[in-house]
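Q: Hi! First time doing this. I have a protein sequence and I read that you can turn it into a structure. Is that right? Here it is:
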Amino acid sequence: MKASPDSNRRPRDPRLDFFRGLGLFIILVAHIPWNSWTEWIPARFGFSDAADLFVFCSGMASALAFAPVFDRQGWLVGAARILHRVWQVYWAHIGSFFVVLALVCAVDAHYGDQRYAEGLKLEPVLANFKAYAAPVMTLRYVPNYFDILPMYLAILAMVPLVMALERISRFAAIAAILACWLAAQSGLLSLTADSSTGRAWFFNPFGWQLVFFTGFAFARGWIAPPPRDPRLAAIALALVLLAFPVSCQNEFSCYALWGHAPLLGDIHVWLGPAIDKTSIGALRYLHFMATAYLAFLAVGPQGRNLHGWLAERFRRVGQQTLAVFLTGLVAAQALGMALDVVGRGFVQDALANIAGFATLAAAAAIVSWFKAPPWRGAASSRRQDGEERQAQPANAA
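A: Yes, that's right. Below is the predicted 3D structure, encoded as structure tokens:
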């Protein structure tokens, strides 16, 4: 009897799905306009944030999903598989942009102004759509709110090159990744998000690929998992704690209270290039790796500490990353608009965020249902029953 394809698949790592789900919930909170809950997201307490987590986990997931295609079926088929995924992500980006644009236009038309278009800086698009239509479709115009998916698809497009270099040596691949990151730090590699203003992509893929391919390298086996060493844990914890007082972006969202210690603000400015988000400064990268190591220790070997109802909800959301992320982009804007109507306060903000979490969980459940539809199971059962009925006379004979 021939083994089914599913029987050859590696079991899902609960840690990967859990942290992808956690990242998606945090990103939703960060995307709801003027959301008071953003004062408690990781970005307020350190140099790195949920975006680093999301990209790192995406790198691991890509190594598990796509690298085996290169191994089994060759470079050309592997590259075609990546191209297919890039195509999917591209249309996901375009679709989400126009859905949010339609929502913004509808609500602004209701109020008779451009309050939400201004909030997302979409006025140029609406003022001269003919001039912006082609740049939007070719990613020569990338609004800041919609910049994660373009960065992701640009990094995905680098995977075939990295896999080609791996055939020479994993060290050649790692050297190319580091060289690309260094070029981004020096300003030699960047992409333009708006040719009319010269604005660059907020997420420079040539810098962020370092985070992505670090996750890729761990999943691929280029880098061994770190040991569970108390000394490493102490170093990681020290880096996280030292970053806290100087991590905030402004005095209004900084628990170190710059007003009483302006020197901390001066240090934050001085550290600017090292904690840069656009191209992933070195200190930001080290901060993320420190938090990742502490999380690695906290969840236990193979994620054995990740159990219970809440952990399961995170895992289910993390299994449907693209669909849930797109849902979050739209839901965040809709929830922000709802808060503008009902007012903002402790109860209203809590209800809005909880409603957002429920929306993400529902989206994950619906997508999971469609990926394993009951009609597929019913058809398989009928086919199996038919085969058994056809086999019965022969067995009886």
